Automatic annotation (TrEMBL):
MF terms in GO: metallopeptidase activity
Protein name (database record): Uncharacterized protein
Domain of life: Eukaryota
Listed InterPro entries: MetalloPept_cat_dom_sf
Length: 212
């Protein structure tokens, strides 16, 4: 990570930019994925139970009020696709076409971008899963993995109070706490240090090759 964050190495710093530095945002997301983070908004603990098909959680931090699914490009066309899936696939027979904005599996089958926002993953870890009704204050709005308001289209996702969600390009404090929980508790790597790590004997040679 050193070569991405240290200006002295000839690389740009990751920084918050309200105007949307797309390159930094993409790098930030990819780093988050590599570290093992998932998008904050896909956790079922934040959604009404009708979105996840479970009575375990019933929150309204995200709902149709602040998730404007019909603003995602291709919405009108995908309604026809969803109608066909409902008519031909028994696993979707209980749905209506508009459920492509509520059901993750239907959105996936229809190849619709709503699947990037909806809860549906089976293995989710969160420090807020013990709450029956997690509220807006439980959401990490500053997370590096939180989609911005204009991701995929203008005005798709807002915070609970309909405020703009900015693009983030550095981990939040909660992101850092989660990463520490993942990697500090008994974690032991069984392979050699990467060339860009301070402990690598090849670090100086690596810097020469990559930084000129």
């Amino acid at each position: 990570m050193t070569l991405l964050t240290e200006a002295a190495e000839g690389r740009r710093r990751l920084n918050d930019n309200a105007n949307g530095d797309k390159l930094n945002v993409v790098i930030a997301y990819e780093l988050g994925y590599a570290w093992g983070l998932i998008h904050e908004h896909v956790s079922p603990v934040y959604w009404p139970k009708s979105y996840y098909g479970s009575s375990e959680w019933n929150s309204f931090a995200f709902s149709s009020r602040n998730f404007k699914c019909d603003q995602i490009p291709g919405y009108n066309a995908v309604i026809a696709t969803a109608r066909t899936l409902i008519a031909t696939k028994t696993e979707f027979s209980k749905f209506v076409p508009e459920d492509v904005c509520k059901n993750w599996a239907l959105a996936i089958a229809a190849k619709f971008g709503a699947s990037d926002f909806l809860p549906g993953r089976k293995a989710i870890w969160s420090d807020r899963l013990d709450k029956d009704e997690a509220g807006k204050d439980d959401v990490d709005w500053d997370s590096i993995m939180m989609y911005s308001t204009n991701y995929l289209g203008p005005g798709v996702l807002y915070d609970t109070d309909l405020g703009i969600i900015l693009e983030r390009t550095k981990p939040s404090q909660r992101d850092i706490a989660g990463l520490r929980a993942l990697y500090e508790a008994g974690y032991k790597r069984e392979y050699a240090a990467l060339h860009n790590e301070q402990t690598s004997p090849q670090l100086e040679e690596f810097r020469k090759l990559t930084c000129g």
